[in-house]
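Supplementary Methods, section 5.1.

A reviewer requested that the exact input to the structure prediction be made available. We therefore reproduce it here, unchanged from the version used in the analyses.
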Amino acid sequence: MELQKMLLVDDDSAFNFLNRIILNANGINCVIEECLDGKAALDATNAEDKCPDVILLDINMPVMDGFEFLDEFEHQNKCSKHTKVFILTSSNQEEDRKKAFSYSCVKGYFDKPFNESHIGEILAVIKPV
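The structure derived from this sequence is encoded token-by-token as follows.
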């Protein structure tokens, strides 16, 4: 699978900006879109013709948090069968990690800040050797 489109979902636009720089600096040159909350991300994935291959999703956000997004996304979104979700959060709660992996679309759980090793883990999932 070739990485063509990625969606960054975090209420901190500075994190989205930095994550984009890290991705580009590590050779990820796909289309990268951003949303500032889960509701905007849900609307974007429902409206797009092309589903993102990967979503980097924060948990703690206003309007609709990451888990509320996952509830809606996994059960009612056309992209949920294709898109792989990776949690990127500052939450170090073990309950959050367990809950995240209860969703079949979640393929990884990363602590902020985003870094090169996270990119390697994402690529290992979407481009298995």
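The chain has a mean pLDDT of 93. These observations are discussed further in the main text.
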